[in-house]
Design goal:
248 residues, alpha/beta, seven-stranded parallel β-sheet, 7 strands, 14% strand, globular
Amino acid sequence: MMEIPVKVALITGGAGGIGSAICKKLAKNGYSIVITYHSNAPKAAQLLSELVGEGHSLFHAPNTDAAQLALLKQFVIENYGKLDILVNNAGITTPVKHDDLDGLSDEWIDKIFQTNVRGSFAMIRAMRTLLEKGTNPIIINISSVAAISGIGSNVAYCASKAAIDSMTRSLARALAPTIRVVSVSPGWVLGEYTQNIDPAYLQTQLDYTPLARLATADDVANVVWALATILTFTTGSIIPVDGGRLLK
């Protein structure tokens, strides 16, 4: 086992836009980062090479694969011995209009819930004992304002995020006082996904945002960092990062 660092964070789906920003923010502030990925190994490896500091690592661990999660747990035990932060950032979706009920297939509904909800719970279950060894440990589930607004890429995605928020509240109660559990709930976040969205639709979302801009991945990363280091008396909460989008 390597020398145990002061702070250790595991970020699922770390190679994505939000995940990358979270990894970089925490690494810059002294955390050793464990990045997990599902399919994009080159992008994950590139991110690993860009992180400042030491003690970072990369592990292939789809959150729907129980065998890989068991191997991931053993890897963290052997190399770090604890976790201080678990960020459940991995998630999937596909664009389907909400009134196109036939367009949202059973296969996609199952995939969305397996990754976004069951997979997040499975990761928490696997990492619980490691978090219990951490300092003021926290689980941060990346949710979405779609959980409340019902406006999102498809109906199942919105429902999956609502399930994540409910899970956050349940586990915050169940794991207290040792482990805190919080949801971070962004609105539209500028990045690769939004590049494929109709600009007119994005402008409509911008027009309905009181702070007159869309979120960046860094906005989300800043909230994750604040919850871990400053807002240490917060648990069971759903923290919006949406510029006031739900006000209109």
